[in-house]
Design goal:
- By secondary structure, the chain is α/β, with parallel strands linked by helices.
- It folds into 3 domains: 188 residues, 3-Layer(aba) Sandwich (Rossmann fold), CATH 3.40.50.300; 139 residues, Rossmann fold (3-Layer(aba) Sandwich), CATH 3.40.50; 120 residues, phosphoenolpyruvate carboxylase, domain 3.
- It has 18 helices and 13 strands.
- Helix 17 links the parallel strand 12 and strand 13.
- The protein is globular.
- 42% of the residues are buried.
Length: 502
């Protein structure tokens, strides 16, 4: 008989499990309120009800998988040898043996998808499929593919899907439900009476910084290059006023032009080159606004290696060459984006007031993460470490070690890319600083904010560059998040939303 240990289930978790025992359920809970433990409660019940079956838990990264394994080991009496991780680093032959011998399998979705497609494993004896970070479950994603196999193979089926941020529209939420064969939705927001007493207070503020005069001059010069080529869109029959043309407009136009290329429209080739050129210049602007001079320089170096007409045209543009010379001169003089100074001051102030503080800094680009580390490390008691993805150079084993070292206090500041946003329970973090907005995604914002104030109150600070698109991103994200909250409140109140959404 399997049992829960070292943990007393909360009332809302038990209520959610009552639903999930009988229906495939999408569980929407704010970060830090025990989505994984809710899944563990259900896993124990399913294994006791259906003897000789297994539980398959899909999660996107190895650090998350390691975290979930630890929770199973600490909170159930299931022997450690029967709780195993499966990722692509394990050979296919060994994965077959591990899968067959385990009661609880924690795996990355892509690994299970490959094993199913190659008939290495079967899900017929899996009595519970848990899908973590369920907002990822789009039509062709691995989560969706595995769920499809499960619906065809499993003899005693039950699916639960976990997320804090399912999507900004009813359509996106319905798509997740359709793709994962969801029948019921269980939602608890922070103000819900069942969960409000467990929610830690977050102090949220934003700090606006202004670019120095020299960087503003570079910004203006890049913008002039952008505007001069923007006029050429009229040659493509695009007559929207120049002052309201957005990046989204150019991207949409590019999609249309690609279709015209398929129809052998010769002007479309010119259009693709033009829109690519405009997007590259716009990206230079964005990097200068949100990241700084070094990020602009690194992108320029990357453009040198590209063979596209747009890249060559940009590289041969005299105005842009002059701009890059000025950019490099400012780098040599030691000029930094003013965010860096604010960042360092904020971190030092926090550590002075609380020497035990743990701080997470989120940044979107690896080059910026490296620059932040160089700028803040060993200043005012700061001991900083980076947490980046495998493609950026940190293996999953190193990621796990980094998180452990941060939790244990070897480091007091962790500078993280997107890999640090989803699901990780980063123990004791009480301040998060958003160096940039990451994107205009409300899901990413919720994920970032959820890394702090999990056990006690915390603070969140966003750094925004004055008079740039970053201000627009910030408010766009807030609008999208408010829209999502409204949808969830309506779904919670609407009994009909608890019926089958297929």
């Amino acid at each position: 008989m399997f049992e829960i240990k070292n943990y007393k289930p909360r009332g809302y978790q038990e209520n959610i499990v009552k639903t999930a025992l009988y229906h495939n359920t999408l569980i929407i809970l704010p970060t830090g309120l025990g989505k994984t433990k809710t899944a563990i409660l259900l896993a124990v019940k399913r294994l006791n009800e259906y003897s000789n079956t297994q539980v398959l838990f899909l999660t996107p990264t190895k650090p998350l998988a390691a975290q979930i394994i630890k929770e199973f080991q600490e909170n159930t009496n299931i022997e450690e040898e029967y709780v195993q991780m499966l990722t692509g680093v394990i050979s296919p032959k060994k994965r077959i043996d591990v899968f067959r011998q385990s009661k609880i399998i924690i795996a990355t979705p892509q690994t299970i998808q490959k094993d199913l497609e190659n008939s290495r494993i079967s899900l017929e004896d899996v009595s519970l499929l848990v899908i973590d970070e369920a907002h990822r479950s789009k039509e062709n994603y691995a989560n969706t593919k595995v769920a499809s196999f499960y619906s065809k193979q499993a003899r005693n089926q039950r699916i639960i899907a976990l997320t804090a941020s399912p999507g900004g529209t009813k359509e996106k939420i319905d798509d997740v439900c359709k793709n994962l064969f969801i029948e019921k939705v269980e939602i608890r927001e922070e103000q819900h009476k069942e969960v409000s007493k467990y929610v830690q207070k977050k102090e949220i503020k934003w700090i606006e910084v202004e670019l120095p005069k020299e960087m503003k001059e570079i910004h203006k010069a890049i913008k002039e290059v952008y505007k001069s080529r923007l006029k050429d869109l009229t040659k493509l029959g695009f007559h929207k006023p120049m002052n309201v043309i957005s990046k989204t407009d150019i991207l949409k136009l590019q999609v249309q032009l690609r279709k015209e290329i398929e129809n052998r429209n010769q002007i479309a080739f010119y259009g693709i080159s033009l829109t690519s050129y405009l997007l590259k210049v716009d990206y230079l602007l964005e990097l200068l606004e949100t990241q700084g001079l070094e990020a602009v320089q690194k992108y320029w170096e990357k453009l040198k290696t590209e063979s596209s007409k747009a890249a060559k045209a940009l590289f041969n543009n005299k105005e842009i060459k002059d701009i890059m010379e000025k950019n490099n001169e400012l780098i040599k003089k030691g000029m930094k984006h003013p965010k860096l100074g604010i960042l360092r001051e904020t971190a030092i102030s926090e550590l002075n007031s609380n020497p035990e503080a743990k701080i997470i800094i989120f940044a979107n680009y690896r080059s910026t993460i490296e620059e932040i580390l160089r700028y803040i490390n060993d200043e005012g008691g700061i001991k900083a470490v980076k947490l980046i993805g495998q493609k950026s150079g940190l293996s999953q084993k190193e990621q796990i070690e980094t998180i452990k070292s941060f939790a244990e206090g070897k480091y007091n500041v962790m500078v993280a890319s997107q890999v640090g946003e989803e699901g990780l329970d980063i123990c004791g973090a009480n301040l998060a600083i958003m160096f940039d907005q990451g994107s205009s995604s409300e899901i990413r914002k919720i994920q970032r904010y959820g890394r702090v104030a999990r056990l006690e109150s915390g603070k969140i600070i966003s750094l925004l560059t004055k008079d740039t698109r970053e201000i627009g991103y910030y408010w766009a994200i807030k609008r999208k998040e408010n829209t999502m909250r409204g949808i969830l409140r309506k779904m919670q109140a609407d009994k009909e939303s608890q019926s089958i959404l297929r």
